[in-house]
Amino acid sequence: MPAAFSDPVWQKPQTAPAFRSELSAGGTLDAVIVGGGIMGLSTALHAARAGLSIQVLDAGAIGQGASGLNGGQVIPGLKYDPEWLLEHFGKEHGETLVEFAAATADAVFDVIRDEKLAVPFTRNGWIQAAHTDTALKTASNRDRQWRSRGADVELLDGAGIAAMTGAKGYLGGWLDRRAGIIDPLSYTMELARVAAGAGVKIAERHRVVKLTKQAGVWRVSTQGGTELRSKSVVLATNAYTDGLLPGLAQTIVPLHSFQIATAPLPAEVAASILPGGQAVSDSRRILIYYRRSPDGRMVLGGRGRMALPSSPADWAHCERALIRLYPALAGIAIEKRWFGRVALTPDHLPHLHEPEKGLLAVVGCQGRGVGLMSALGKRMANYLVSGDARQLPFPLSPIKPIPFHAFRQVGVAAAITWYRMLDAFER
């Protein structure tokens, strides 16, 4: 794929190290973490801070996957609201999940503060924009539930959302001030830097190809012939999961998320577009999400084709959405185009698995991976230290491949096309 079709707007911080692909020498590690994204690095950092010996192995380069390519929206919560979680998980476990979900954004901004990460960020909230009466009723219900728990949230009417976004076509929405935005590539690289400083060994371009267990110790073999020994293994590959753990890749539906960034906006145009620096996601079936970048560009993303892009036309749906919302941007050049993967599960919840003692896997960020995986990483580290499953916010579940998984991708692609057409009728 030409480099022009993988050109994110995000920047590596000047403090980013050039990893020497360090491998632990001899002995038995406390944990090997497969995948150097936000989930893997968060787990590694917190586990190392607790005194564990940790090795991170990544098949590519740190920041190359979804953790460095996402929209940088730090959104608390899950796809479901408190009342649904209480109904489906029971009062005790439901309350645990609600408390966890409420604090996922805190996990990001707390580590930026506590570890002094060089990460551009703004914490002025996230807006869920409603384009239909039905979506507005949903927003009102969500507002009621979180407000009753003391969350700093606000229901927006048409005038309110117009003033905060400057966008066309919304009836109202919901503002969650717990949320914010970051540069995701800086965040991922900085997590790697401080993890390495805490003693974590990080090796790029080391693909793990085999896991075996002998006498209670895991042997982790890489494509290059390296073998490491460890008490535990954590698979943190999410949407990039392969066949390393049989059946795991068939439990998720990986989707491509395409993004564009304009040239830096002229001051007179920028003044009325997201003046408070919030992130926005809308209520369409095939939602779009957008924000301003630290250097003053407009960044917008949405679900794209399942095949790899072959020309700028593959981002045309993003450009149409941008101009629909902000007609004044029609003359502004699109300077950056890129894409990454997200992982969905059928129930829209993260799945935690431990098919054998000491072999852990986490999949399913549902498009909220920055906050969710940062917070899950800390809990996973606590589990590695204590062995107490109560440290985990989600129950450990068996691996259950999606029936007819090979056909699921075709069905998802057809659904995206159908939903996009329905969305067009609701303009």
UniProtKB/TrEMBL annotation:
<protein>
    <submittedName>
        <fullName>FAD-dependent oxidoreductase</fullName>
        <ecNumber>1.-.-.-</ecNumber>
    </submittedName>
</protein>
<dbReference type="InterPro" id="IPR036188">
    <property type="entry name" value="FAD/NAD-bd_sf"/>
</dbReference>
<keyword id="KW-0560">Oxidoreductase</keyword>
<feature type="domain" description="FAD dependent oxidoreductase">
    <location>
        <begin position="30"/>
        <end position="382"/>
    </location>
</feature>
<dbReference type="InterPro" id="IPR006076">
    <property type="entry name" value="FAD-dep_OxRdtase"/>
</dbReference>
<dbReference type="GO" id="GO:0016491">
    <property type="term" value="F:oxidoreductase activity"/>
</dbReference>
<dbReference type="Pfam" id="PF01266">
    <property type="entry name" value="DAO"/>
</dbReference>
